[in-house]
Amino acid sequence: MTSQVSSPAEQADGTVVGEQRKPVGAKDVRRLDRVIIRFAGDSGDGMQLTGDRFTSETASFGNDLSTLPNFPAEIRAPAGTLPGVSSFQLHFADHDILTPGDAPNVLVAMNPAALKANTDDLPRGAEIIVNTDEFTKRAMQKVGYTTSPLEDGSLDGYHLHPVPLTTLTVEALKDFDLTRKEAERSKNMFALGLLSWMYHRPTEGTEKFLRAKFAKKPDIAAANIAAYRAGWNFGETTEDFAVSYEVAPAARAFPPGTYRNISGNLALAYGLIAASRQADLPLFLGSYPITPASDILHELSRHKNFGVRTFQAEDEIAGIGAALGAAFGGSLAVTTTSGPGVALKSETIGLAVSLELPLLVVDIQRGGPSTGLPTKTEQADLLQAMYGRNGEAPVPVIAPRTPADCFDAALEAARIALAYRTPVFLLSDGYLANGSEPWRIPEPDELPDLTVQFAHGPNHTLDDGTEVFWPYKRDPHTLARPWAVPGTPGLEHRIGGIEKQDGTGNISYDPANHDHMVRTRQAKIDGIDVPDVEVDDPDGAKTLVLGWGSTYGPITAAVRRLRATGEAVAQAHLRHLNPFPGNLGAVLKSYDTVVIPEMNLGQLATLVRAKYLVDAQSYNQVNGMPFKAEQLATVLKEAIDA
After folding, report:
1. Which of 32, 98, 110, 641 has the highest CB neighbour count under 10 A?
2. Count of CA atoms in the C-beta half-sphere (13 A) of 297
3. Among 310, 399, 446, residue whose Cα is nearest residue 581
4. pTM greater than 0.85 (yes/no)
5. Cα angle vertex 493, ends 489, 499, to 5°?
6. 318 SS3 class
């Protein structure tokens, strides 16, 4: 990899720039700077696996990339229906990119439902590859087609490639001892092979993956590999695909280093492991499975060799209760959940505030309220994280901005929890959790030192000269209380949810003491050392767009588009949401207009307006999907022109 340099702006309309052609035998090869592909089919068609494999090969090739998996909440949604459509969108390029793309250049539709659910997202001139075997009269009627869209001219504005994927797959596997139904299951690998040929993707990694995945069923592995190769060969030989495409590696987009493709949940899990190693503490996860957070539990359970212990509890309350007990016992304690689980954990989070113990509460946000949209994204738990407990129970709140940034956010959350002896909220969301991008693997000496000093003896002298241990005697700089591991001689102290007496930790009902303790806990959070917010403003703009969490990618892409057309717009993005960076108020008041896009109804805007008395404009979306860059660019242009 070469050193990072500035990269061209993403195009507003999804078109490709700088296209070059060169003939290679009977087929042409066209060079593109970026492509957006969407695989779509039934939830049982393997679209997520297909997209994941194409993504892995794209990452190994060296392109920058961003992905958007989108699937139903049901394990097996009704076949052939619009609610049952599962899709995977991948944006890859020869330069730095930030989003999965607004509109696909290529749609692979495995059935009529997949075509109908996604056609409206396609720009004119996009390529559509359809599995014609699935376009039966009954299947088309099920989704509302009265005539075949492949024949009635409704797709004339697109480059349509009708391919009998199922038939071709079955034919390719006729020499295998498989039933027709078993052979048909490999049609996603045929489609993957065809797309891999179209875009010159490497093949070795996918074949190795299939051999490993079906190691106990070598015949199935061989059949999938055969279907994959058949798809590649079909692209090479058929006249319908006269052109293939090249997207060069994004060499200039990455600083030197070793890279891998990583999802947000995987990066978060690795960040937690790294934090425990840097703190020299065992890592304990107390969790109850919930979409979209369960992958963290699955991943951490694989790493017992790093001192990781995972406990799958019977419910959300038991999960956080075990985690808080582990924190009391001297572990780096974590509980993972989504919004509905946070509601159940709220009393124990309040107990952690009262006990002043380090605890990481990881909330992978999803659409709500209640059960809501389990597989769709939203960032509407901010106010719940800030205030969703009885009494005054302040906690720090931080949010990662990209899938790879989840690693660094986990380290930062651990730093705050350990240094200030407090529970910390880490707010990721479904878009970050399931999406992926290239990640530079850090060197060990780049990681922060999170070493913790436990209490080992008396820390207070009474008036009569007796040395005693006071569990709530505070560090004068951080206001953190000492962390005493149970069983340490002489450090016995009370725990429990009833208010503590300042210093001694004894039960106290004294009104003045309660007032003092409430204000002290708040002062501890207010005094957390967080870096100033950085402002990207090269042109002296009068309009600032402020974001948090996963809106970073769409906001930054929108800002790039506007600047490419000569517009002046500034950008700032918050990682720390409680406490806010110390310079945030001054930053906000230095701009005439502040726009805050959020995937909620204006929660950060509410906090900003209340704290800084700034008339911030809120732009909101709660449809379960991330913002599109062009959508935000339009909103920001209107704000600039107002």
Report:
1. 110
2. 20
3. 399
4. yes
5. 170
6. helix
Between vectors from CA 344 to CA 514 and to CA 269, what angle results, nearest 5°? Answer: 105
**Angle CA 531–537–539, to nearest 5:** 160
Other C-beta atoms lying within 10 Å of the C-beta of residue 104? 26
Distance (Å, whole) CA 586 – CA 47 = 48
Query: What are the tokens at 311?
Result: 């406990």
* Cβ(379)–Cβ(547) below 8 Å: no
81-138 per-position pLDDT tens digit? 999 999 999 999 999 999 999 999 999 999 999 999 999 999 999 999 999 999 999 9
Round to whole Å and give the CA distance between 259 and 437.
10
pLDDT digit string, tens, across residues 169-222: 999 999 999 999 999 999 999 999 999 999 999 999 999 999 999 999 999 999
Please choose, from the candidates 441, 440, 405, the residue with its C-alpha nearest in 3D space to the C-alpha of residue 426. Answer: 405
Q: Are 599 and 627 in contact (CB under 8 A)?
A: yes
Which residues, in sequence order, are CB contacts of 31 under 8 Å at separation 6+?
18, 19, 20, 21, 22, 245, 246, 247, 248
Question: 341-369: string of b/e by CB count within 10 Å (b at 16+)?
Answer: bbebbbebbbbbbbbbbbbbbbbbbbbbe
Backbone angles phi, psi at 85, to 5 degrees: -75, 130
Q: Looking at residue 444, what DSSP letter applies?
A: G
Length of the chain: 642
Rounded CA-CA distance 285/142 in Å is: 45
Is 74 in contact with 81 (CB distance < 8 Å)? no
Q: How many CB atoms lie within 10 A of CB 518?
A: 15
Once rounded to an integer, what is the mean pLDDT over residues 52-65? 96
Rg of the chain over Cα atoms, rounded to whole angstroms, equals 27
Residues 6+ apart with CB under 8 A from 566: none
CB 246 within 8 A of CB 22: no
Shortest CA distance to 81 belongs to which of 139, 22, 17? 139
3-state helix, strand, coil in the chain (%, to 5): 40, 20, 40
**Residue 601 dihedral angles phi and psi, to the nearest 5°:** -100, 25
Q: State how far the Cα of 307 lies from the Cα of 312, in Å rounded to an integer.
A: 16
- At residue 438, the 3 state secondary structure works out as strand
Each residue of 331-341: pLDDT tens digit?
999 999 999 99
Strand order, beta sheet including 27-32: 20-24, 27-32, 243-247
Spatial separation of the C-alpha atoms in residues 314 and 311, rounded to whole Å: 9
Question: Residue for token digits 């696909």?
Answer: 104
Token pair belonging to 446: 């780049």
C-alpha to C-alpha distance for 586 and 579, rounded to whole angstroms: 15
In order, the DSSP letters of 51-80 are HHHHHHHHHHHT-EEEEEEE--SSTTPPTT
Shortest CA distance to 639 belongs to which of 556, 541, 560? 541
Three-class DSSP labels, 143-194: CCCCCCCCCCCCCCCCEEEEECHHHHHHHHCCCCCCCHHHHHCCHHHHHHHH
Structure tokens at 624: 């379960």
What residue type is 442 in one-letter code? P
- Which token pair is 13? 């309309």
Kind plus residue range of the DSSP H or E element containing 606: helix 603-612
By the 8 A CB rule, do 89 and 104 touch?
A: yes
Rounded to whole angstroms, the Cα distance separating 69 from 196 reads: 19
Per-residue pLDDT at 14 exceeds 60 = no
